[in-house]
Amino acid sequence: MKPATLKQIAETLDISVSTVSKALKDYSDVSEKTRKLVRETAAQLNYRPNSFAVNLRTKESKTIGLIIPEVVHHFFSTVIKGIISQAEKKGYLVIILQSNESYELEKKQIDLLLSKHVDGILISLANGTSDFKHLTDVIDQDKPIVMFDKIAKIVNCSKVIIDDRKAAYTATQHLIDTGCKRIAHFRGPLLPQNSIDRFLGYKKALLDNNIPYDSSLVYICDCSDMSFEEGKKNAAQLLKDHKDVDGIFINTDMVAIGAITEFNKRGVKIPEDISIVGFSNWFMSSAITPSLSTIDQPGYQMGKIAFKQLYKELKALKKEKEVRPKIIELETALVKRDSTRTMVSET
Amino acid sequence: MKPATLKQIAETLDISVSTVSKALKDYSDVSEKTRKLVRETAAQLNYRPNSFAVNLRTKESKTIGLIIPEVVHHFFSTVIKGIISQAEKKGYLVIILQSNESYELEKKQIDLLLSKHVDGILISLANGTSDFKHLTDVIDQDKPIVMFDKIAKIVNCSKVIIDDRKAAYTATQHLIDTGCKRIAHFRGPLLPQNSIDRFLGYKKALLDNNIPYDSSLVYICDCSDMSFEEGKKNAAQLLKDHKDVDGIFINTDMVAIGAITEFNKRGVKIPEDISIVGFSNWFMSSAITPSLSTIDQPGYQMGKIAFKQLYKELKALKKEKEVRPKIIELETALVKRDSTRTMVSET
DNA sequence: CGATTTCACGAAAACGTTTTCGATATTGCT
DNA sequence: AGCAATATCGAAAACGTTTTCGTGAAATCG
Asked: How many angstroms is C1' of C19 away from CA of B18?
C-alpha cells in the first residue's frame, strides 16, 4: 500500500541502497545488468522517490511561490495560466498566494513562502506596497525573485513589464488622431507604478499635441472589485463636471466597460459624443456594444516569460554563477474597435 | 546569511538539540528558564524550522493540490480564491494545476501531485474524464480527495456541489412563469455531470408544465474558451431553425452573453421576443444590456467548503479515524434581471 | 607475472528535524 | 536517612535520500 523505498528495493535484490539510488539515476558506476534489475523491481514495487527526503538532501523543492494581488481578475488569471503551464514544463510546481492588494498580507505571504522553502518567487505587487524590505530580504537570502506587471523600480531584481507610459501615450494619441480635443483620464490608484506611468503617458501625449493638461479631467478609481461600478460613477460625474469632454483614456477595461454602460444608459453616443480607449484588452471588450478600443496587454506571455527568467536565475544560482537582474519589456498593441472613431486620414 | 538550525541554537546555549526542539514546541519537560533562553536565541539567530526536515519527519507537507479544468474562468477563479483563503487560515498552502479539460493531463497532474506528496487533493473534473482509476488510486493511497462542481457520482469520495437539476428546473420554470411557450436550451458538453443535470432539469420543467420536449430545440456548445462565440453562433442558428422560440435556458452565462450580443445585433428584442436565463451569475451578467437573469452559483463558498471538508478528513486521517464521504449541496438562487419578463402574477 | 588501471559495488555520513527512552538531579514524604 | 516521585535534560534512532570515498575484483599493460 505504502510506496516502496530504496531500502526495500535494495533488500529484495540483496544489494546496497547506494547502488539502487545510483542505478535509478543512471550513474556510470553501476553495471548495465544491475541497473536493469533495479529498474524492473522499482517498477514492480511501484517505487516513487520520497520527495521530502529528496528535498532535504538536495535543498530544493522544485516549487516556486506566486503572489498576486487578486486571483479573480481576467488579466492576472491569464498570467497565472502562463506561469503554471511553463513551470510544469520545467518540472516546477507553483504555490499561489493572494495579497488582496494589502501590503501587510503581502509581507506575510512572502514569509510563508520562505518558510516553506520555495526555490524562488514570482510577484506582482499590491497597490498598498511602498516599503520593500520584505522583498530585499528575499534577495538577501539568495532566493531569486522576479516581479511582473506591478513592480517596484527601486528593488534590484528582474522584472517583466510592459511600457505603460508608451502604451498610454499611444492610446491617448489615438484619441487625438481621431479628432478628440478635450480628453479626460480615469486613472488607477496613486501608488502603483503602472498607474503612474499610464497617467504620465496620457499627460505627455497631450502636451506633445499642444493640448493643455487639465488636472480636473483626471478621475481616480481604486480598481478594486468594484471597478465596474466605479466606471459608472466616474462617467456620471464626468457628465456633470465637464460637458465638453469628447474622449477618455481609461486605466483599465473593466472601468471602461462600466463607463460605456453608463453612457449607453444616458444616451451619450460612443464614439460620436465621447470616444473611449481602455487598457488590457480584456475579453469582454470585444463583446460589449460598442466594442472597446483598448491596449492589448499580453498576460499569458508575461507569465511565461516571468517564469522563464526565474528559471534561468534558478539554474544560474545552482552553478554559483552571478545573476544580474534583467528588465524585460513586452510589446503592447493598440486594438482599434468601435468606441473610437476611424482616423481622419483613414476616411 | 543562511537560516539557523536547531543545532546552532543548541551549540550557542551549550545544551542538546532535543531540548531546543522541545523548548520550541512547548513540551512540558523543559524548564521555564531554558525555554525562554531558547526562544530568545532562536529569535536572535533568526531561526526558521527547515520545512524539508519537518516534512520528512512528520510525513506531511501541509500542502494540498488543486486541479481545475481552466484557470482563466470567472467561476473557477472565484473557487480558487475561496480555497486558498481558507487553506491559509489553517496553515495549508495550495499548489494549482490545470487539466485543460483533458483527461490525459488530469491523470498526469494527479500523478505529479502524488509524487510531490501533497496531503490531499481538491479537484474539479475535466470534461473529457470518463475513466476514474487515477482518482480511486488516490483514495487507495489513503490520501483524501474531494471533488467540487464537476464531479463523478461513481467515485466514493466527498463532493461539494449544487443541485444542478433543481437549479435548471427553477430557471426553466421561471421562463414558463413569465409566459414563454416554446423554450430552447443551449446545453454544455455531453459528458460532465452538471451539464447533464442541467439538461434534465430543463426537460423535467417542460414536462411538468405539459410542454412537449423537442430535442431539436437543444443546442450543444463546448463551453471552451470560445463560449462567447458559440453563444453567438447558436443564437444565429436558432433564429434560422425556429422562428417561434420565445425563451432559452442557457447552460452558462458566457454563452448567454454571446447570444444576447447576437440578438441585439439582429434587432431581436429581449425579453419581448425572446427571454433568456443563464447560469452562474457571472459578474458581467449584471453589466450587459439587457442585464441577464441567471442562476447564482456560490463559487467562493464552494471553494471554502471544499477545503473545509478536505481539512476535516485530513485531521480524521491523522487520528486514524475512519472517514465516510460526505455530499454537500450548496444553495443556488434565481436572480431575476431584465432578460426575462416580470411574472404575470407580479404585473 | 607484477603493477596499474578500470569497473562495480558498499559503507557511511549528511541533510535537520521529532520523539522515545533513559539518566541524572531534585524534591517530597515517611 | 531512605525511598519514591518528579522535574529536567541528553543520547540516539529514525525519516529516505544523495554523494563521497574506499575496497576488492577484474581487466589491461609493460
From this structure: 9
Q: What's CA A218's distance to the chain center, in Å? A: 26
For residue A347, pLDDT over 60 is answered with: no
CA of A11 to C1' of C13 (A): 21
Pairing of strands A183-187, B327-330: unpaired
CB under 8 Å to B344, separation ≥6 — which residues? Answer: B177, B178, B179
In the numeric block, which cell numbers belong to residue B147?
471533488
A2-16 b/e (C-beta count within 10 Å ≥ 16 → b): eebbbebbbeebebe
Is nucleic acid strand D under 7 Å from A33's C-beta? Answer: no
CA count, 13 A, side-chain hemisphere, A166: 10
Nucleotide C20: closest residue by CA–C1': B18
Q: Per the structure block, which three cell numbers stand in for B20?
A: 531546543
What is the full DSSP assignment across A55-102? HHHHT--SEEEEEES-SS-HHHHHHHHHHHHHHHHTT-EEEEEE-TT-
pTM summary value: 0.92
A307 and A228 Cβ atoms separated by less than 8 Å: no
Beta bridge mates, B235: none
- pLDDT tens-place string over residues B131-167: 999 999 999 888 999 999 999 999 999 999 999 999 9
